[in-house]
Write a structure and sequence with these properties.
heterodimer, A: 222 residues, MetI-like fold, 10 helices, B: alpha/beta, Alpha-Beta Plaits, 2 domains, six-stranded mixed β-sheet
Chain lengths: 222, 342
């Protein structure tokens, strides 16, 4: 019955596209989490009256974040093509999309990390300092655990945005469900392919949201 | 021993420079409970943070445990802080950690092994009376229990000094008394020096040996608690003392008494120590042929003995009243004539 409803959907091609989307989303989400967290913590610690208060570093990091956050993703994708070619020796396939996905999403996430860290009670940081904690201890045992629910809900939002970005990356031949929906579905006027690809993207988004919500409520002991 | 020498702390704010601490000199003895009282903005929060290096003085020297806290940095300062603990008004516990994990945090910082940590945490839990709550999260505790966790955490690395930053100001009166009792118990059992800042005279009265009164960054008065209570000098100290003796709101009553009994004198008597237990008033009536009526009375227990105030209306021949007041002076009862009738 399914083959009658969706005559042009090929299981192997669909499976390949799902794999590529999940691959691109998960790798870029992990990298964005690490990079965005590092930048966010740097922004937080260098802000006025903080542990590493430094106007110049804070301003430069903030400016860099704002610049990369402002470039539309499609343009960033194209701008980074030479860099991608240098890195992977190819501008096709899921790997080719990764630099643009990470560089596009990390500044976005860094801002969310900064907001999450600002929500931490200043008194807790002061108490840790009064106990003789090093800055690294404060980062890993106070800042990250105390802001974890916000960090997780932030990465959930970012991961969902990344699913959307992977679809755009399909345009430069990165593969995935976006590529399938556009190149194979829309361009060849096979609307059933576009429809199935869209539904699967929605399912992926819902799964990410549910995982994010469950994790957030699990770590929140407030 | 703790010493603050010629401490000045200035801040630059949007509204120009601000001197938070202005030329303060203090010496605090070992195993003493020392109170610093003042209204908000008096500079006491800054002062207490100078003692563990959370703030550095603009000028002057801070010496705690023979270490110049005002002149050490980095690793040396961090290690020194493990011996000068602090508890806070809003407890400042990590909500992401259980009671046991919160108490273990300073031990982790000190680099203690997991097995030793678990044993030490259990000792501390027993010390502060939190048995059975080890696995609870701070959000599941009452204010008093949270402060007990704060105290256990502060005591974890066997400090020599405990700094209390308005530690009972967020608690209800009964819980405040429980926490104060715990602090006294710790002071007596462990010989810990306790320095606390507060705006409540009750806290000073209940547990402090000595007190310093701060106003606008300066220490305006300092001495043994009982002495300061008995003979407050600065106007602000008098206000704090009357906060405790309850004479603050009674001026209207005094006015009323004055109107109804236009003769005689309204006198405030201050009794300290053993005097509080002697029948001074009945002696007064018998010996000098005056009538004495009690208008207001109060007695409070301090660390170094009871302290009472009594406001009485003395009536009779003016010669007798004069003699009566002289007698009171002789028996070492402080007198203060509140108003002259006639």
């Amino acid at each position: 019955m399914l083959t009658e409803l969706f005559p042009n959907v090929k299981a192997d091609r669909l499976g390949q596209a799902i794999y590529e989307t999940v691959y691109m989303t998960s790798i870029s989400t992990i990298a964005t989490f690490i990079l965005g967290l590092a930048i966010g913590i740097l922004l937080f610690l260098t802000s006025p009256h903080n542990l590493w208060a430094n106007k110049i570093v804070h301003f430069l990091t903030g400016a860099l974040v704002n610049i990369f956050r402002s470039i539309p993703f499609l343009i960033l994708l194209v701008l980074l093509l030479p860099f991608t070619k240098m890195l992977f020796d190819s501008i096709r396939g899921p790997n080719a999309a990764l630099p643009a996905l990470i560089i596009g999403a990390a500044p976005f996430y860094a801002r969310m990390v900064l907001i999450a860290l600002r929500e931490i009670d200043k008194g807790v940081i002061e108490a840790s300092r009064s106990m003789g904690a090093k800055t690294s201890t404060i980062i890993f045992k106070v800042l990250i655990p105390e802001s974890l629910p916000a960090l997780i809900s932030g990465i959930t939002v970012t991961a969902i945005a990344l699913v959307g970005y992977t679809a755009v990356a399909g345009v430069i031949g990165a593969g995935g469900l976006g590529d399938l929906a556009y190149m194979h579905g829309f361009q060849r006027n096979r609307l059933d392919v576009t429809f199935v690809a869209t539904v699967i993207v929605l399912v992926i988004v819902f799964i990410i949201q549910i995982i994010g919500d469950v994790l957030t409520s699990k770590v929140d002991k407030r | 021993m703790i010493a603050l020498k010629n401490i000045i702390k200035k801040y630059t704010t949007k509204n120009g420079p601000l001197t938070a601490v202005d030329n303060v000199n203090l010496t605090i003895n070992q195993s003493e409970i020392f109170g610093i009282i003042g209204y908000s903005g008096a500079g006491k929060s800054t002062l207490i943070r100078l003692l563990n290096g959370l703030e550095q003085p603009t000028e002057g020297e801070v010496i705690v445990n023979d270490l110049k806290f005002s002149h050490i940095k980095g690793k040396e300062l961090r290690e020194a802080r493990q011996k000068v603990s602090m508890i806070f008004q809003h407890f400042n516990l990590l909500w992401s950690r259980t009671v046991a994990e919160n108490i273990a945090f300073p031990l982790e910082i000190a680099g203690m092994s997991k097995v030793e940590r678990e044993q030490r945490v259990q000792e501390l839990i027993t010390l502060v009376g939190l048995e059975g709550r080890e696995q609870a999260y701070p959000s599941q505790l009452s204010g008093g229990q949270k402060q007990r966790v704060g105290i256990a955490r502060a005591l974890a690395n066997n400090p020599q000094v405990l700094l209390c930053d308005e530690a009972t100001s967020a608690l209800d009166p009964e819980t405040t008394d429980n926490i104060l009792d715990l602090l006294v118990d710790i002071n007596e059992r462990l010989g810990l020096t306790i320095i606390l800042i507060t705006h409540e005279m009750h806290v000073i009265q209940k547990i402090c040996h000595r007190v310093a009164v701060m106003e606008q960054g300066r220490v305006v008065e300092m001495g043994d608690v009982l002495e300061v209570f008995q003979k407050p000098q600065a106007p602000i100290t008098k206000r704090f003392v009357s906060q405790l003796t309850g004479t603050e709101d009674t001026n209207a009553i005094f006015q009323n008494v004055k109107e109804h009994y236009p003769t005689g004198k309204l006198v405030k008597l201050v009794f300290v120590g053993e005097r509080t237990e002697e029948p001074v008033i009945s002696q007064l009536v018998k010996q000098f042929d005056v009538s004495v009526s009690v208008v207001h009375g109060n007695i409070s227990q301090t660390k170094s003995g009871p302290y009472g105030t009594l406001v009485v209306h003395i009536d009779g021949a003016s010669e007798n009243i004069k003699k009566a007041l002289q007698f009171l002076h002789q028996v070492d009862v402080q007198t203060e004539v509140i108003s002259y009738a006639n």
